Structure formats: C-alpha cells, structure tokens
C-alpha cells in the first residue's frame, strides 16, 4: 500500500499524485516507472515516475484517465492508499553527456520529462523541452518544466499558448536552427502517445538525430516474466519492462507496437462504458 | 495386514464434460473410508524403496500405516515433519516417476496411491481447528528470503521454527510463486495455498509483497544496510523462452506465463468483474508438452475455447507432463499433435493469428538429453487453423536479480551456481535453491532445497555465534 500525500488536478482528466514510497524513491532513476493496482481483482498498469524525492520518501505520478483503472486511480484522494505500487522498473536511458537534448512531451508525457530534464540540465547538458496539447489549459506542469530546462517551448493546436501547431512542427524548426540560441538538437527524447512518438521518429530520421522513445506496451508483471510487453527493435524482440522502456526511435517497429497495444481495445472500451454507466447510476441514486 | 487389490482406489473426480468449462478442482479427494481402504494396500516393506523415490524422504510406510489405523493426526505429523507442503505436493508431484515408481506393488499391480493419500491427510489437517499459538522469533539474527515460491516459503518456515526473524520479499502483489500465478485453480485451489501462507505468518514469517530485490532494494543492501545475517534466493525460473519463428509477435500469441498469469493471478476469467482482459481464442494451439502446456491448454478450454491442441515436436514418450494431467487432458477432449514442429505463426492483415504452420518430424538418434532427436520430414509442411498460439517451451532463471550484483556465479543456462545439498552459493551468507538453481523443475525439489538451505543457514550461523562467543 502506498499513501497519497498530495493530489493536484492538472486538467479535467489528468491528476498528479505525490505518493509515499520511500524504497522506490531511494532507488529510482529518471525515466523509470512503477506498476500499480488500485483494487482487489484490479489490473496492473505501468505509470512513469514523473519525479521522486529521496529525502522526502515520495514519488510523483501523473495519471490521465483513459480507462477503468486510471479512472479509479483518478478518483482517489489525499490520505487514500493505492493498493499496490511496485518499482522502480525498467532501465533509465543512457544519454551521453554534453549535447543539446530536446525532450518532446505530448499530453501527460510532459510529466515524464520532469526528472529526466532536471538530471540532464544539472549535469550540464543544454536542454529544451517541447510540450504540446490541444489548447492552453490542457498543457501541464509548464512552470515546473520551465524551471528544470534551459528553454521551454509550448505548442497548442489552437494557438492559445506558444507555437500554433504540432510539437513535431516546432521540433522541425529547431532542427532547422530556429531554436533559442540557434543550436539544433543533438539528441531527442520523446514521451507521449504512440502517434506522437512515431511522428517524432519520422521528423528526426532524415537528419539522423539520435532519438529515444519511451514505449508503453501492455504489461503485467514488469519484471520479464510474461513477455506480454515485447516490442521489436531492429528486428530483435525486446521486453520493454526490463530492456526499455526507452528504445531507438528509428529502430522500433511502430506498426507492431500500435497493433499490440490495441489487442484488448474492444473489451477495454466496453468495460469503461459499463463503469461510466454504473457511476451515473450511482450518482443518480444519491 | 496388507490386503491384495490390483488397482488403486479410484480418485473421485468431476465429470470431464462439466469440469472442462469451469475452474473448480478436478479431483475431489478421498474420504476417510477410501483413504483407509487404499492404505491397506501398502505392503509395509522392510526396504521401503518408495522413500528413496521421494526427494524429501517422507517416511511413506509410516504415514500410510497411521492412516490404515485411522490415526490421521499421527499421519499428519509424520508428513509435516518431512514435507512442509503436503497438500500441495500430494496434488502436483509427479508421483509416477518418484515414490510410486519405486513401490513394490508396481508392475503386476498399480502402486499404492501415495500422492492421493498424502493429499488426503493434508486436507484433513487443514480442516482441523487451528490450535497453534502465534510463534515469535527468539533469536537475534534476521534472515531475508527472496521469492515466495515453494523454495522460499519452505525455507522461511523452517527458519522461523528455528527461532529466526524471517522476511520474505516477493516481486508480485501476491505470494506463492508458480503455485499462485502458474498452476491453475482446477489443479491446486488458491485456498490450499492461502492456508499454507496463513500458517507461515502464524509461525512468525513476515511476507512483504511488491518488492523486487535488485530493483526496489539492492541485494547487497539487505546484508550491508538492513542488517540481515543471511539471504536465501528462491527466485525461480520465470523467464519465458520464445521460439524465434516468424509471426511470434502477432496478436493472439502468448507465452504460457502470460496466458496463465492473466487467468490465475489476475483472474481474467472473471472479466469485467476483474479488470484484466483476455482473449483466449476459439482454437488454441499450445506448443510444448510439459505440465505448463497441459495447464495452459486445459485453461484455454475453461476460458471457452472450442478446441485445445497440444503441438509437440517429440512423441508421447518424451512428454514431461504428469501422467494424471495427461489423462485428464485426454478426457477433456484435448487434441494431441505429436511429432509436429511449429515453424511459423500465420496472421491476417489486422495482425491477428490465423494459423500455425508446422512440419512433421520423425525420431532420430538420441540427443544430449538422451531423448530421441526429432528431425523434420522433408516436404511435410501443413497448416493448423488456429486463432491463438501459446508457447510453453520452457523458462530460464530471470537475470534481473543476478545481474544487479556481483560475485554470484551462474552457469551457461543462466542458473545460479549453488551446492545441491546445502544451497551455498559462491558468496558467503547467500544461499539459493529451487528453479533458480536447477532450472525449471518441480515443487518438491524446490521445497527440499529450501529445507536444506534453512538447515545450512542455521548451522553456519550457529558456528558464527560460537566463533564470536569464543
Ligand atoms: C504452469 C506450471 C505448472 C507446473 N506444474 C507442476 C507440477 O504439476 N508439479 C511440480 O512438481 N512442478 C510443477 N511446476 C514447476 C514448479 O511450479 C516449480 O518447479 C516451482 O514452483 C519452483 O519453485 P521456486 O520456489 O524455485 O520458484 P517459483 O515458484 O518460480 O517462485 C519464485 C518467486 O520469486 C519471485 N521473484 C523472482 N525474482 C524476484 C526478485 N528479484 N525479488 C523478489 N521476488 C522475486 C517470483 O515473482 C516468484 O513469485 C509447474 C510450473 C508451471 C509454470
Ligand atoms: S512428496 Fe511427492 S514424491 Fe514424496 S511421497 Fe509425496 S508425492 Fe511422493
Ligand atoms: S510486463 Fe511481463 S515481461 Fe514485461
């Protein structure tokens, strides 16, 4: 069990939790993740460790409510316990020091950039974060990210904040030398929805810029025991939970990854609909 | 006096037509009358060779005599002294190649039903009112056990009984190892495992779930920072092998570990009441012919598959599953494709499995395992139309823990090197046993290794105490 110490609502469907997990906080490295379960008979889902505080014994996770489990989690309040939290899982990305690293975060992926960018900035790399959302009020943690990067680039579809357009369009401009200080990226790190990561991979492929993406396949154990999380990288099968989640964006088989992630989409939607109906029923009865 | 009867007293079992559609236990167990009736068949041999067939040397004739005399409490205490997990072993041991194989009745008659009797006694014991008062550790030394499979659980229980304070760390959210996530309810009910774990807690063992040693806590920190005097590693052989054939990542291809974990640990059969989804398929091919393969194919039937197929590149003779499970699988309608080697998984445009391309094999010269080597018959390719393929071709130890530390030697199969009799590894104060040392083996071997290591830990710590005192 892990106690929720702090809860913040970032957007109507995105919540941030600071969770008491001293062992995980002490062992975590930027880019690792945890697996959580919120109720008996609940499923196990991976969540990135957005941030961690060893001294305070806490980790920060950001949850976007997209299905049954994330909604149950989103409904928890300060003082509640999360039934199971295990980690830190996965391997922190190895990023050679000294370059200009551009982190691209889509949606809740921005949260995952937080501890990564802080580490890179503090060891002396030049850092830029590009975060995007449909509109201004859906951008998350911009103040926090701004504080840990040399420069922060906001992108919105409707132009309500920062650049009007996609994160990949802004990334292309940076590659073309239009960034703060004019240095184009040496390395790119993309975290967010699969289509966005895939688009980032295509954007940097031509210029041959080293790019890492954080894959999020379906997982169960997170320790290499089930193989459900396998992704193909350069023709070789990898287990994302132990070998990843970061892989060479130009070598990942995205078609396969997208297809495997949708394996249970129909069942999951049906369950989510049923949950929504049940909630309405309960609210109506109250 | 022994009574001559040719056949084992039959084990009452649920009708195959019914049981193949639910997860309730297949075998119903002997009642007292059947148990005493069967116990009378034991010849009470002077040279009880059955005992030699049992990896933990249960005094088999003694406990069977106690049953024949109607003294089940005595039988229970004889059993427990030798085997801390009798209810489990009575259900899952491969008796036909262990105790019962050696039984003098074998040959002309069927052997004494040692496994069924063991199970009967243990089940009886579980139904007695709990009377043991909670036990508290009385020694200073703390011991860490990594992994809560049979090796870890038995080691922990033995050490607790010797007065040590024992903490078991388990990576998953529930304890039991393969007994929890692998072996299905219809063969080993969770209630049996839950009871064993409750008894362990009663005996003072602390079980901490959701801790992956090597990730959450470093192995070396257990010794150096957390004050544990010794560590037992019982992390099993949980890493699934894949064949490396084309199509293995299509939707609808699972490792047996994933397939069984979704069902047993995550209760996908209860979706959407339980949250983990599963698509077990209508025509399911399971590749392999061990216990895991039998559990998988029979689980597939229970998840609603219309056809369950075993696809194995060797023949029936080389199959490694327990005989009883094989018979149950036949009764439940499983199809067996012997000497059939899968070479490719076929899929449709959406990436879902549509078939398994195979070739016919014939048996050649013996290979390094001593079993006849299967060789492909030229031009024999054919396609089995299936929508799900599950790989059950073996597992190896998970390198996660072993690669997180130094000084622990492994062999070329990735197994941790440890002394078979006492579990000592290549590092002082670190012991190991079970599948992590032997590679995928059996529950009773893991339990035996846990017991032996506990004794060695106790001896070594006692010696250290003496040195310190002198
Ligand atoms: C489906 C199936 C059916 C089987 N049927 C039979 C049968 O009928 N008869 C029989 O005798 N045998 C059977 N076996 C084999 C038997 O289950 C195993 O040999 C036995 O469970 C091994 O015990 P163990 O304690 O070594 O490891 P396991 O049971 O594998 O337990 C290891 C535990 O350690 C945990 N762990 C791993 N790494 C870490 C870490 N770093 N930190 C913390 N915890 C960790 C794992 O999560 C797991 O819970 C079967 C196996 C399977 C998979
Ligand atoms: S533990 Fe296994 S081998 Fe030993 S007597 Fe029981 S069933 Fe036979
Ligand atoms: S989640 Fe099971 S192996 Fe990665």
Number of helices of chain A: 9
Total DSSP E strands of chain B: 16
CATH architecture of the largest domain in chain B: 3-Layer(bba) Sandwich
Low-confidence stretches of chain A: none
Report the end-to-end length of chain A measured between terminal Cα atoms: 30 Å
Which structural class fits the helix and strand makeup of chain A?
A: alpha/beta
In helices, the fraction of residues of chain B equals 25-40%
Spatial order of strands in the largest sheet of chain B: 3-2-1-4-16
How many beta-strand segments of chain A? 17
Mean pLDDT of chain B: 93
Describe this structure in words.
The complex is a heterodimer of chains A (286) and B (470). With 286 residues, chain A is an alpha/beta fold. Chain A folds into 2 domains: 2-89, Translation factors (Elongation Factor Tu (Ef-tu), domain 3, Beta Barrel), CATH 2.40.30.10; 100-261, Nucleotide-binding domain of ferredoxin-NADP reductase (FNR) module (Rossmann fold, 3-Layer(aba) Sandwich). In chain A, 31% of the residues lie in helices and 31% in strands. Chain A has 9 helices and 17 strands. In chain A, a hairpin with a 2-residue loop joins strand 15 (230-233) and strand 16. The radius of gyration of chain A is 19 Å and the shape is globular. Chain B has helices spanning 16-19, 32-39, 49-53, 60-68, 72-82, 86-92, 99-102, 114-127, 150-161, 178-181, 190-202, 219-224, 256-264, 291-302, 323-331, 399-402, 435-438, 443-469; strands at 142-146, 165-169, 206-208, 228-233, 239-240, 253-255, 283-287, 307-311, 335-337, 340-347, 353-366, 372-376, 382-384, 388-391, 395-396, 430-432. Chain B is 34% helix and 16% strand. In chain B, helix 5 crosses helix 8, helix 6 (86-92) runs antiparallel to helix 8 and helix 9 packs parallel to helix 18. In chain B, strand 7, helix 14 and strand 8 (307-311) form a beta-alpha-beta unit. The longest helix of chain B has 27 residues, at 443-469. Chain B contains 18 helices and 16 strands. The interface between A and B is large, with 40 and 43 residues. Residues 219-222, 224-229, 239, 241 of chain A line the site of FE2/S2 (inorganic) cluster.
């Amino acid at each position: 069990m892990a106690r929720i110490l702090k809860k913040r609502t970032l957007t109507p469907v995105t919540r941030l939790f600071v969770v008491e997990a001293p062992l995980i906080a002490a062992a975590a490295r930027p880019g690792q993740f945890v697996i959580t379960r919120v109720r008996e008979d609940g499923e196990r889902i991976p969540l990135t460790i957005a941030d961690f505080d060893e001294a305070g014994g806490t980790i920060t996770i950001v949850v976007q409510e997209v299905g049954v489990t994330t909604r149950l989690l989103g409904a928890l309040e300060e003082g509640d316990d999360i039934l199971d939290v295990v980690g830190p899982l996965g391997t922190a990305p190895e990023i050679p020091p000294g370059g200009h690293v551009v982190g691209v975060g889509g949606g809740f992926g921005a949260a995952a950039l937080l501890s990564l960018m802080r580490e890179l900035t503090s060891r002396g790399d030049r850092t830029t974060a590009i975060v995007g959302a449909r509109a201004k009020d859906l951008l998350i943690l911009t103040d926090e990210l701004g504080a840990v990067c040399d420069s922060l680039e906001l992108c919105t579809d409707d132009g309500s904040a920062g650049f009007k357009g996609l994160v990949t369009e802004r990334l292309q401009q940076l590659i073309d030398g239009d960034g703060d200080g004019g240095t184009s990226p040496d390395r790119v790190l993309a975290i967010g929805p699969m289509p966005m990561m895939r688009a980032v991979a295509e954007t940097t492929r031509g210029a041959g810029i080293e790019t890492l993406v954080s894959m999020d396949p379906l997982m169960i154990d997170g320790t290499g025991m089930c193989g459900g999380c396998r992704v193909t990288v350069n023709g070789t099968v990898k287990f994302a939970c132990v070998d990843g989640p970061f892989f060479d964006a130009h070598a990942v088989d995205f078609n396969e990854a997208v297809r495997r992630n949708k394996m249970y989409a129909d069942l999951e939607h049906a369950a989510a609909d049923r949950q929504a109906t049940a909630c309405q029923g309960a609210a109506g009865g109250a | 006096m022994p009574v001559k009867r040719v056949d084992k007293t039959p084990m009452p079992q649920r009708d195959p037509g019914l049981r193949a559609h639910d997860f309730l236990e297949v075998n119903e167990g002997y009642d007292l009358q059947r148990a005493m009736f069967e116990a009378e068949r034991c010849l009470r041999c002077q040279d009880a060779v059955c005992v030699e067939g049992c990896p933990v040397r249960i005094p088999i004739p003694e406990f069977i005599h106690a049953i024949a005399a109607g003294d089940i409490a005595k039988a229970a205490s004889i059993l427990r002294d030798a085997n801390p997990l009798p209810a489990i072993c009575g259900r899952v041991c491969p008796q036909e190649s262990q105790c019962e194989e050696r039984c003098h009745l074998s040959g002309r008659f069927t052997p004494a039903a040692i496994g069924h009797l063991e199970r009967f006694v243990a089940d009886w014991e579980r139904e007695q009112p709990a009377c043991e008062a909670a036990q508290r550790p009385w020694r200073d030394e703390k011991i860490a056990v990594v992994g809560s499979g049979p090796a870890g659980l038995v080691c922990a229980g033995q050490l607790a009984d010797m007065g040590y304070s024992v903490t078991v760390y388990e990576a998953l959210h529930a304890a039991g190892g393969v007994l929890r996530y692998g072996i299905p309810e219809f063969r080993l009910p969770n209630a049996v495992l839950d009871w064993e774990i409750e008894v362990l807690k009663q005996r003072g063992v602390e079980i901490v779930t959701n801790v992956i040693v090597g990730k959450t806590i470093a192995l070396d920190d257990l010794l150096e920072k957390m004050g544990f005097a010794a560590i037992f590693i019982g992390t099993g052989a949980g890493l699934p092998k894949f064949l490396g054939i084309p199509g293995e990542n299509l939707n609808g291809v699972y490792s047996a570990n994933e397939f069984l974990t979704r069902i047993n640990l995550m209760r996908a059969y209860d979706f959407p009441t339980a949250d983990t989804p599963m698509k077990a398929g209508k025509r399911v091919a399971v590749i392999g012919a061990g216990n895991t393969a039998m559990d998988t194919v029979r689980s597939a039937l229970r998840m609603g598959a219309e056809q369950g197929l075993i696809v194995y590149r060797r023949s029936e003779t080389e199959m490694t599953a327990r005989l009883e499970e094989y018979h149950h699988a036949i009764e439940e309608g499983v199809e067996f494709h012997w000497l059939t080697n899968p070479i490719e998984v076929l899929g449709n445009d959406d990436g879902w499995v549509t078939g398994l391309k195979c070739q016919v094999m014939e048996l050649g010269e013996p290979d390094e395992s001593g079993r006849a080597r299967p060789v492909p018959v030229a031009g024999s390719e054919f396609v089995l139309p299936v929508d799900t393929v599950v790989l059950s071709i073996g597992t190896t130890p998970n390198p996660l823990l072993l690669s997180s530390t130094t000084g622990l030697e492994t062999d070329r199969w990735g197994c941790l090197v440890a002394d078979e009799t006492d579990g000592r590894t290549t590092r002082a104060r670190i012991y190991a046993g079970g599948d992590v040392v032997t590679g995928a083996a059996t529950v009773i071997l893991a339990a035996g290794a846990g017991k032996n290591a506990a004794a060695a830990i106790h001896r070594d710590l006692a010696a250290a105490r003496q040195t310190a005192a002198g």
